[in-house]
Structures are given as structure tokens and as C-alpha cells.
Amino acid sequence: MRYLHTMVRVSDIDASLDFYCNKLGMVETRRTEVPAGRFTLIFLAAPEDKDGAVSRRAPELELTYNWDPEEYGEGRNFGHLAFEVDDIYATCARLQEEGVTINRPPRDGRMAFVRSPDNISIEFLQKGKALEPQEPWLSMPNTGKW
To answer: 19 in helix, strand or coil?
Structure first.
């Protein structure tokens, strides 16, 4: 398992980039606009990790801007911790055997979510290409929030 990024939701891209980039010195490594989902993802890295964020995948900060206004109460602006795993199905099966609820099953062979005992969302992403969808994950519904 490898630590990938931490996601926080932001309400103002310009103010957030001013803070993280101009004031803290982080650098933007990539940006993705997702019109269908109505959000923008902006990934930032520490200056020393700028080149490594792309080539060796140093940990990044993911700023998520939802196009529709939303008040982020109760820590909703903090999104999740993300980890890359060698086999998302094996990871989820092991966690499930240990009593962890799989909140968002890896139906697509690529992504799953669980929550910590303190309700912190943890995202698992399949290393490399997504695995072929398979049961029991394919037909498993979401459970709770993720």
C-alpha cells in the first residue's frame, strides 16, 4: 500500500490557490474538470515533490471544488485519505474479514471507500489498470456514507 493524497473541499478556487500556492509555496501538478459530475480537481505538491508528484507519485493535496454551492459543516470540507493498493479485491476482502464495513465497494475494480473508527473516509485505488469487475463486489450496494 502507498499513500497517495489527502482531499479537501474548497469553496473558492482562487482564494485556495492563493493560500496553498502563493502563501505556502505548493505547486499545481495537474487539474481535471469533470462537467458530468460538476466538479474540478486540482492536485498540489510541495515544491521539493513537484517533479516526483508525477514521476514517482509523491503524496499530494487534492483540492476538490464542487460547482454547486454547498456549506461544509461538520468537517465535510475534509474529504478522504487515499491509498494505492496492489489488489483492491484482496484488500477489501481482508478488511471485511476483520469487521470493517466496505462503504463503497469496488464494483468498478478500481475504487473503494471505508471509514475509520472516527468516521474519516479512506479511499483505496487499484494500482495500475482497474481489475475486471467481479462478485461479490459487482452487485454489492453502498453502505452508509463514504
So the answer is: helix
- Report whether pLDDT(58) > 70: yes
The CATH 3.10.180.10 portion of the chain extends over 2-66
Residues whose CB falls within 8 Å of the CB of residue 28, separated by 6 or more in sequence, listed in order: 17, 21, 42, 43, 44
**Helix, coil or strand: residue 105:** coil
CATH code of the domain occupying 2-66? 3.10.180.10
In this prediction the pTM is 0.68
Among 28, 60, 123, 132, the one annotated catalytic: 123
Residue 52 confidence (pLDDT) above 60: no
Longest dimension (CA), the chain: 48
Tell me if residue 70 is catalytic.
no
